[in-house]
Amino acid sequence: MHPISVRDISKSFMTKKGPIPALKKVSFVVKEGEIFGLLGPNGAGKTTLINIMLNLLTPDDGRVRIFGQKPGPGVASIINVVSGGSQFHWALTPNQILKYYAELYDIKDPDKRIAELASLLEISDLMENKFGWLSTGEKLRVSFAKALLNKPKLLLLDEPTLGMDPDVARKVRREMRRLNEEGTTILLTSHYMHEVEQLCDRIAFLYQGEIVDIGEVKDVKLKHFTTYDIVLTLNKRPSRAFAEMHGLRVKEDVVRATLDSEEALSRLIAAVHTAGYKIRDIGMKKPTLEDYFIKVIKK
Ligand code: ADP
Ligand code: MG
User: Which pairing describes strands 79-83 and 154-158: parallel, antiparallel, or unpaired?
Assistant: First the structure.
């Protein structure tokens, strides 16, 4: 039973200007134990899809299953969600908010669990402040504490680190990894490509309501990038004949080459050595997920 299975989901929003197709026949599964990344530019349909999983929206067509069940009250105790825009009543304190949810989730020994989570997310000192006074990052940490109360088997994270300081975001990422190692399956949407690249096992790229690529991060990148650049600093400027023979771009003692395989790299280094040059520095520029993102959108 997959934590998430989405089959042929379509959803349009009716507006004065006519229907906006937000999702067009989207299908994929998230497997048990994965951190799955849902990427795509603003308006791609990511939040709409998450809202369908949470039973906040009904699809026009297709079906979603969460551990084999329909979205709704039947799965409420085993999933949870954090979204960048999470809000709680401004006048309540984190303590009151978490107690309220602990009651909803029927948590045994709620004070102990809340204290554990407050310590984990470093909000113990904020527990009696009004929610409205907290900073963006602090609000998000309260939201994370709420999401972990019921020890969910599936965690949906919609842009969870949006607006967080880098050090807090790093802590949250570390926490995501820890939860995942303990068995929580995670669906993550994020704009931060390095975050996705660091965390995710597989990704789906959503563009204008359709999945254009899906798979492991490295495979998705390979589909669009078959070459990478290498920069060598030599002990002296190589001869023009040598540069031409090996397709090098030369500027003083720095040479650049575009390669398509590891064998090509070994051949180049051997040739440099044989010709009597010494390598002072070497750098490789492999495509990142961000390069991929920009390339797909340009297409
Ligand atoms: P993402 O989360 O990927 O940025 P969304 O799922 O929020 O994208 O939105 C997908 C598209 O659907 C966008 O064009 C958005 O403007 C539109 N949309 C989302 N919710 C509504 C709504 N309630 N009414 C009308 N249009 C909406
Ligand atoms: Mg969104």
Answer: parallel
